[in-house]
Design a protein that fits this description.
The protein has 272 residues and is an alpha/beta fold. The chain is 46% helix and 16% strand. A seven-stranded mixed beta sheet has the order 1-3-2-4-5-6-7, sandwiched between helices. The termini are far apart.
Amino acid sequence: MSAITRRNNVHILGSGQQTLLFVNGFGCDQTIWRYITPALSGQFRLILFDHVGAGLSDLAAYDPAKYDSLEGYAGDVLDICRELELRDVTLVGHSVGAMIGMLAAIREPTWFQQLLLLCPSPCYVNEANYHGGFEHQDIHDMLAFMDQDFVGWADEFAPFIMGNPDHPALSAELLHSFCQNDPAIAKRFARVTFLSDNRADVGRCHTPCLLVQCAHDLVAPLEVGAFLHDHLPTARLITLPVSGHCPHLSAPVATLDALEAFMAAYAAPCRG
C-alpha cells in the first residue's frame, strides 16, 4: 500500500473498463455509498476513499494549511488518480464532495470524462442575488454549536441533513458516520465546507456534468441547482421527487436510475 492509498484508505471494488471514483460529502466515509455500489460493481471498477480525518484515513496526514480550502481536498483526488494511473474517470461526488470533484476537474480536466454530482452547492450562504439556504448567522451559530458540543451538534444536524423523519434509521446511520470522524478535523472541515464560495469557479468546469438534486433539500435548495445549471455549460439537471440531502441513502434506486441513464446516454455516441 502506497502512502497515498494509506492516507485516504483507498479501496478498489468491482470490475469493468470504466472507472467510477466516489467523493464523499462532509462527515461521511466511503461506506456511505454501500446502497448503490453493489449494483455498480458488476459493470464498473469502483474507487472509494476517505477524506483525511474521516473513516479509516491516516489522521497523521492532516495538514491544517493544506486543508484550509477545498483545493487541498481536490488535490487528494488528483493524487489518487495519479497513483492508480486512472483514465477517463467518471467522478461521483456528494454535497461538498461534488464541489471537491469539480475543482479537481477544473484543475486537471484530462483525468475525467464526466462528473455525476449529487446535491452539489458552490455556496451555502444567502447573498443579495443568490439563495444558498442559510443566512450568515445560521452558519456561524452552527459552527459555534459544533465547537462547543460536537456530538450534540451531530445528533441535531443529522436528521436536518437526512430530511426523512419517517425513517429515523437513516438519520441514525448518518449520525454514526459523523461520530466516526476526528472531531477536531471535522470542525475545521465544516468551517471550510460551509464558508466556501466557489460560485466563480463553476463556469470554468467544462467536463460533462449530471446535477442530481432533491425536490425538498434544506441544505442545497432548488435555487442552488438552478444556479449551477445556468452557469455550467455542459450540465444536465435532474430533480428527484424525494426529500433530504442524501439521495444515495434515502432513495438509492432513483439515484442509481439517474446515474446509469446519464452514463448510458453519454456512452452511446462514444460507441457510435
